[in-house]
Fold these 3 entries.
Entry 1:
Amino acid sequence: MTTPGKDRSDRSPWNWLLIVPIVLPLLPFLFNADGPRLFGFPRFYWLQLAFIVVGVTCTTIVYQMTKRKR
Amino acid sequence: MSEHLTEIIIFTFLFLLVSGMGFVAARWRRPNDLATLDEWGLGGRSFGSWITWFLVGGDLYTAYTFVAVPALLWGAGATGFFAVPYTIVVYPIVFLVLVRLWSVSHVHGFVTPADFVRARFDSPTLALLIAVTGIVATMPYIALQLVGIEAVLKTMGVTGHLPIIIAFAILAAYTYQSGLRAPALIAFVKDTLIYLVIIVAVIVIPAKLGGWDGIFDAAKAKFDASPAPGDGPLLNANNQLQYVTLALGSALALFLYPHSVTGVLASRNRDVIKRNMSALPAYSLLLGLIALLGYMAIAAGVKPIGTDNNTIVPQLFDKMFPDWFAGVAYAAVGIGALVPAAIMSIAAANLFTRNIYREYLKRDATDADEARVSKITSLLVKVGAVLCILFLDTGFSIDLQLIGGVIILQTLPAVALGLYTRWFHRAGLIAGWIAGMAAGMIMLYNISNPATGKMHFAGSAFPLEQLGFDTKMTVYAGILALLVNLAVAVIGTFVARGARLGEGNDVTQPDHYFADEGDPRVKELDLTH
């Protein structure tokens, strides 16, 4: 039982970009502070919410760059 | 009760509307034959990006989350916000792992993670352990969805267990009939309602309370006045490690839960999964805003009903919204409980059917047998969840769910690492599972909370002091248990190789992990050889 295209793989240098949104949210010294506030949000809250955008950006780039040509 | 009449009418109307959709779902994207697990339990493995986004989003971000996370912030502050980093790191972590699982499952027709382990390591025993872990971890999770509905009903002045039993009976009936298509269709309504309610809430409530600055200051004032050492609007030196390990551990656990795997395997191809890994964080943003409802409740001076902190969010809505919109908000939470409860019961039923019934009770089960057994099991699972709520203390369900997160993590070496390497020996993996389980249980048992007088199972923050370290720092018990598991699995693998124990037959091949839609499948996978 084989599938066509045996040379396929998930390897891509773009995958390394995924490390950024894994590491950033796990570094409390970056966000564990009150100031500066943004729209009234202490840094602890707005920066962690901003990491969501970082995550979306990185995964979107990796998806677009590793998408299979059909 | 009469003062809540408008809310009750709107809630009931939306609930019945959605129930009707659940029954109609059997006809949606109708297959030739619903009597196979691929169709009933995985929606024909045919869902595209949009359906998958609603389905998996509705599956992972449950009603209980929406009620419990703000309650955590209300009670303890910053530590409750771990849900945000948790749901950020999970997607990049599983981005590459899940496409491999999808591919190999596509080729071999796997329905559950235990199916994969069975084929990869040729060990029915290991597969049984994975299946039982999944079922045990899922059951209390379903029960907790009922807690979400109960919190809403309580606020509307509806007490007693009858409404919950009726709601679950309806849910059980349409899940039985329509399978995974029911929650997939209902998820559209659920998520639209939730997004609507939360967008309105984060605009209207802060405006009424005088802005975000005031909300955060009110939270700070509350925690400054409280004597508890661990609370506050920011983390302190002793709970940062717990915050980070809990976020990471929960992220590693999330896609080991059978219901998450069910949602992923139901998608059409690899690109659908990758696209969803970048689109699902939209729900994390929503969750972050929902979490802050806890602080809004502090600023608004909202009090829970009795000692049930989970009623904080419904109480806030009751105070801040006109009756009709509060009704919509309650319906969003109530319907939000139905989607994950349905998927979880389907996932648990599939595990029983594939890895217990077919493996140990009826080896020559046909597709129709499997579908029938799964449908019946999904009913039993829901009855079990209702009994949990009726006869056990709610606190006990929460304890069980806490334990669930720790134990499901112990399937990581076999399922997630197994997708990448066959290096581990099946005997080593079994030994690691036993050691990780034991370590996890012992740690959870020894976690106490002097503030509530609870001596055992009082949370997941394990004090490093108990291991002989001179510190007040705590760490997530699940991560420590996983480290024990991995260490024993490695040692066990060396021992098993040294003793020349059989390695078993791996029926998967390297290229199976890259297969995509349209690639040939192994039609009749022989799991019994």
Note: The two ends of chain A are 23 Å apart (CA to CA).
Entry 2:
Amino acid sequence: MSDPILRLDGVYTNIAQYHILQGVDLEVPRGAVTMLLGRNGVGKTTTLRTVIGHWRAHKGTVTFDGEDITRKPTPAIARAGLGFVPEDMGVFADLTVEENMVLAAVSGPIDSARLDWVFTIFPPLKTFWKSEAGTLSGGQKQMLSIARVMIEDRKLYLIDEPTKGLAPAIITTMARALKDLKEQGASILLVEQNFAVAKALGDTANVMDDGRMIWSGQMAELATNAALQEQLMGLSLDAH
Amino acid sequence: MSIAPEHAPKMAQASFAHRIGPWMPVLLVPMLVVLGFLAIPSTSSWLTLTVSGLAMGMMIFIMASGLTLVFGLMDVINFGHGAFVSVGAFVGVSVLLMLGHMTDAPSLGLNLVALLVAVIGAMIATGAMGWAFEKVIVMPVYGHHLKQILVTMGGLIVVEQLIIVLWGPEEIYINRPEALKGAITFAGAALEKYRLVAVVVGLVVFAAMRWVLRRTKIGLIVRAGVQNGEMVEALGYRLRMIFVGVFIAGSALAGLGGVMWGLYQEVITAHMGNQAMILIFIVVIIGGLGSVEGCFIGALLVGLLQNYVAFLEPKAALISNIGLMVAILMWRPMGMIPVVKAK
């Protein structure tokens, strides 16, 4: 098996007086979708934000593509090839859809073929290309948020709850987009509460509780084992 | 996964009130001009006051535009901004005094060249000072508003005392360049030449800032950074570098404003920047923190209102701008054109 694209070894992260991550170990294999699961408040978002450098690990190491990025500033981590979709989508409301996309194309002008591909996945973005992002619906904002990381090739995509609070129709669109990305051989670390999406996309799964990783294995194994789901998360994911 | 229908939301046309909402701040300026026209009995007086108000507004805008971007981009409250205004005025006036043979010549071309050299000198000096100010005074207090207020206010006092050490404690009275003295007559109104120049300079600065912010990638990064700096960094941009650049540009603009303001008042003092800060803060607050367009409209409103009220009811001029701020904040608590900040 090849080196993982991302590896966390004994990562501890504190936010003010709160000890959020308490020794997280995680491996994200190349060219696969890795699910990060767990109840609310167990540290999933903090794990992603620690990887991108928004919060600093005060102990442990984060290795990305063979390089220690634990102490690197966020822009350097992003330029190393990490695309990040935050839980709050992070769209620039006063900028147009076009300007949001231009900004996301860090290495130069937008590649038109790639943009066409994005438009086939998210047609509303073409319709509202000149509109301010703040005027979009919640679902369209999420499309824009994901489209921004898709507009350039990234070594790893960190995506935090892309279906949160969305209508079923939009969830289908999001899942299709992530499936397209997966079929292109992308490496994705995905935090997701929607089990149907997690089951459809995930190759491997990691379950967190209380700031630690309590289980890692194949998504298929977790999806078919109700007792394991109950044991890890206190509920059956199928009933979710 | 469940099959769901395609997402096809229906769009309804917004109401007239909803569509005109974003334009209301822009409409305030012509509305105030019309109100002034109705309230001031003489058309020539109204025209003189309007040009004077616009000139004053433009100069306040030049001084305030950097401050609003600095606040919006890095959440830094810089009470020391007035120091750049004072230093800009002193450096610019010193250059003009050295170029006396050009400013005294009755040639518009020579006068404007002298003014341009003075402005460039002032902007270089205040830009460099801004770089040092950011590194030494502002950088250690990122994220701490109270410390920012205290330390930047301290920086302002230090700079004012340094000006007194270098240029002396007395006020310096200055003459405008020869060709910019006096007024031209238009429709029976006397329009000061210098004020017309100030209006043109203000418009050029505003147009240039808008062009940079709207048409260049650096401008995009700045606008995005004002809304959500964390996300801009997550895209791979070094916001800290951009911020230093904006701080330097903002300081240089304050220097330009200082030269213009000094020539407008025809006297400069070490405390002139500090005194201008009241108007600058009013403009930045009513415009919407971080909004260049809001700052521009706010500055024009302040300039026009101050001139109209000073003519109609001189005693009320002192409180007119505070009254304007109160009225606008009651209407739009986040300012006229608020920047949508990430939560």
Note: Chain B touches chain A at residues 1-7, 9, 217, 220-221, 223-224, 227-228, 230-239, 339-340, 342-343 (CB under 8 Å).
Entry 3:
Amino acid sequence: MLLTWTIALGGGALIGAAAALLLLTHGRIAGISGVVGGLLPPAATDRGWRVAFIAGLLAAGAIAALVAPAALGAPVRSPLAVVVAGLLVGFGTNLGNGCTSGHGVCGLSRGSVRSLAAVVTFMATGAITAWLVGGGS
Amino acid sequence: MSIVVAATAGALFGVGLWVSGMTRPAKVIGFLDPSRGWDPSLGFVMGGAVAVYALANRVVRRRRREPWFGTAFHLPTRRDLDVRLLAGAAIFGVGWGLGGLCPGPGLVAAASGSGTAVAFVAAMVAGMLAQRATMRR
């Protein structure tokens, strides 16, 4: 239990450090939905760092598959449910200008009122959905 | 050089996500749903990330007028709460609780070769495009 929490804290610190690196060097918020959204039409003019950041994220996934595939976890829902989930996540994060990283990590850290409201909201609807559908471990 | 740094930030971010368990849908759903033996460890992920980023944000913003590569920091300044923000966050939360994946972990899991995660990311992008197509920004 203590080990799990320590690893979680360390993983979180790494996420925070990576986001801080992007802030220091590019002056950008490491919000994944925003980084991806900026590449979709009408695309933002600053595509270079966005493509590079996502490429790094994907590289981490590819490396993880080689090093510790079990740590990545397996899907728990039917493909149809996952597709519906993806549509909602894409639509919602674009409408609400952020996800777990942009509002959660960066926004809360900066003391943003909008991000706090967003986090409370998506945690609440996420909890209700998870409670209704189940499937946790 | 700026591209390499952005890619490095993305890779570190991705490693942080899988180390901390954010790519495991069952774990995410178990965190969101406190009714069945709650697993609070993802709260430590958020705590670790916010602690590091809040400190880094303060130091960077105090010490620097511009990022290393670029002429200005691109940070959100709005403080008003509106329906779009809250509705978007609510929709995102439903998708997160349903699929157990948010945008960053979805991309990492997709790159690891999970067909389900690839479908999630494709649906997420479709959801973003649908939001842009149906609503004025």
Note: The radius of gyration of chain B is 17 Å.
